[in-house]
Specification:
Blueprint (H helix, E strand, L loop, with lengths): L8 E5 L4 H11 L3 E7 L13 E2 L2 E2 H6 L3 E6 L4 H13 L2 E4 L5 H5 L3 H7 L4 E6 L14 H7 L20 H24 L4 E5 H6 L3 H10 L16 E5 L4 E5 L3 H10 L14 H6 L1 H12 L4 H11 L3 E3 L3 H6 L1 H5 L3 E6 L3 E6 L23 H7 L4 H10 L4
Parallel strand pairs: 1-2, 1-6, 2-5, 6-7, 7-8
Antiparallel strand pairs: 3-4, 9-10, 10-11, 12-13
Helix pairs in contact: 1-7
Amino acid sequence: MPGPLEGLKVIELSQIMAGPTCGMLLADMGAEVIKVERIPGGDDTRTYSEPSVNGESAAFMMMNRNKRSIALDLKTEGAKEVVKRLATSADVLTENYRTGTMEKLGIGYEVLRQLNPGLIYCAITGYGRTGPAADKGGFDLIAQGFSGLMSITGDPGQAPIKAGSPITDINAGILAALGVVAAYVHRLKTGVGQLVDTSLMEAGVQQTYWQAAIFFATGVSPGPTGSAHILAAPYQAFPTRDGWINVGGANPANWLRLTKLVGMPELAEDPRFKTNAARMKNLAALTAILSACLKKRSTREWLADLDAAGIPAGPINKVGDMLADPQVIARDMVVELEHPKAGRTKAIGLPVKFSATPGGIRRPAPLFGEHTREILVELGYGDADIARLVSEGAVA
């Protein structure tokens, strides 16, 4: 099915998570994405052998569907020439090397934009391409700590805890994709490309909107609050007789509904809990009262009644439970693919739906260098040229 970005050609010189997230989103929305993998080895996630499906890395297959693979040794002149040809014929090039690496190779933004003034060049780095930390490399764990995320995650008094998912990697990829699309809109108007620059650091800082607002207003750095909201209550996880549920009863209407549902309407008039500000001030007492009440019944029973009352609530699923949920399935968030080596596999679907141009998953993740010859032919290389590149070790 065609996607809204059908006809957009993207060259991806990225690996592991942030850059491939950007490329995957663009590809799922219809863009043609050519993944340039380094010789030897390819994308680092290819070496993540566990878990694997018939020897193929599950991590690589998850992030690289809908892409074609060309394997290049960027230290060779032949491979650099291939990249220049790719960039000349492309709309977008993405890379997540350390700042300055592409320039040292002779294929940085300034060189490539001379060849293709309409090129949108998207760089994802650890800390951005400017500033005193521009030259530093970046990893999700380091970015979560640097951006303050680990200081607000977990329960008070615990050791610093990172988010369970690589949130700065994934968010940087989403920001990069948004930046690419915005730059593409500009190019459609003007014909001029540009440099799109984002980082893991900025992707982490962006996640601290509420906490930064508190600091700007008070001068105090917020700490972790467990599952509880930092500005509203009750809005957190509560224990039940057989597990845990999340309850969002913070706004006035839902708070009144909740007090009636749990059989304690008097809480609504209790000075400690009458307003959101009062509830936040007395959160420990409120949590103890509601926890004692909710422990009396099962998760299933409470969720049924909370849903019927119109109070936002939900289970705390394990990943497997989430992937099997009827709503997740109905929204096509689990898709099946036929991989040439791994066989029938599953992946996460496209999280944005389009009524006229739905996009979707068209092909599985490529084998290493699976499309090298095919892409070289498209670029105008003949058999003799390709044989020369192979003999030089420039391509595989």
